[in-house]
Amino acid sequence: MIGLVPRAATTSDPFNAIAEPRRRDILDYLARCERPVGDIVAALGLAQPSVSKHLRVLRDVGLVDLRRDGRRIFYRTNAQALRPLHEWTRRFERYWRNQLTRIKERAEEAK
User: Fold this and answer.
1) What CA–CA distance (Å, rounded) separates 89 from 65?
2) Would the CA dihedral through 95, 99, 100, 102 be positive or negative?
């Protein structure tokens, strides 16, 4: 039997943190510009406590930064922290490019 490797905590591993689809939605929304929690809640249709919880996880792993302006808090993505995720997924670009090329070739042959 293969030994089980314990999974890293969601709050310490960016890959585990983005495994949650709502966190990816938040990152996608914040990619355009920084936003306060209320804007994220309204745009994504999530409850405020849920958004705050997800932002906390994303902050803990460094994928999101915050800026205070008086009593308001603005969140933004940390592009530098996203780099390792991008580099890892980029490894698979060749695979998808090859798959799409094959699909195109088969479609053209079927004509």
Assistant:
1) 22
2) positive
* Burial of residue 77, with CB atoms counted within 10 A of its CB: 0-12 exposed, 13-18 middle, 19 or more buried: buried
pTM: 0.72
**Please, are residues 71 and 1 in contact by the beta-carbon 8 Å criterion?**
no
Query: Is a pLDDT exceeding 70 seen at residue 11?
Result: no
Rg over alpha carbons for the chain, rounded to the nearest Å, is: 19
Q: Is the pLDDT of residue 8 over 60?
A: no
Residue 2: φ, ψ to 5°: -75, 135
Residue ranges and CATH numbers for the domains of the chain are: 14-79 (1.10.10.10)
